[in-house]
Design goal:
Blueprint: H1 2-118
Domain Coiled-coil: 2-135
Pfam families: CCDC34
Biased composition (Basic and acidic residues): 1-38, 45-57
Length: 138
């Protein structure tokens, strides 16, 4: 009976230790799971923060590029406007020079016409004396 009682005590002690070990194991597994869950959560939040930072940087770069493009476009349009203005000025200058040339030509022509009326007519060429020189035919 003592043996049986001792065996029973050992069995109970074994069961108690086994139960305690299982509880400790369960606690350890639960802590481990909780820790892993926290670690995953931390990683996800870190990734989200990095992603948000990258997106923000991309937006800044896009805005910067857009501003530079607008400045370039504005400068290009100003250059084109200046070029057109210069072309118009050159065209006006050419037109003015052409008009001045025409006016001068007309004035010179009128003067020549006036002088041509007042000039004496050359004598008619006689036979054998064209331009007042002997040709040797007659």
């Amino acid at each position: 009976m003592n043996k049986q009682l001792e065996k029973m005590k050992k069995n109970q002690e074994y069961e108690r230790r086994k139960r305690i070990a299982e509880e400790k194991h369960k606690e350890w597994v639960q802590k481990k799971r909780e820790e892993e869950r926290r670690e995953r959560k931390r990683k996800v939040s870190k990734e989200m923060a990095e992603k948000a930072t990258r997106e923000l940087e991309k937006m800044r770069l896009r805005e910067k590029a857009d501003i530079k493009y607008k400045e370039w476009l504005k400068k290009k349009r100003a250059e084109e406007a200046e070029k057109k203005k210069k072309e118009k000025e050159k065209e006006k200058q050419r037109e003015a020079e052409l008009q001045e040339k025409r006016t001068r030509s007309e004035k010179i022509f009128k003067e020549w016409l006036q002088n041509a009326r007042n000039k004496p007519q050359p004598a008619l060429n006689g036979c054998g004396f064209p331009h007042g020189k002997s040709t040797g035919l007659y």
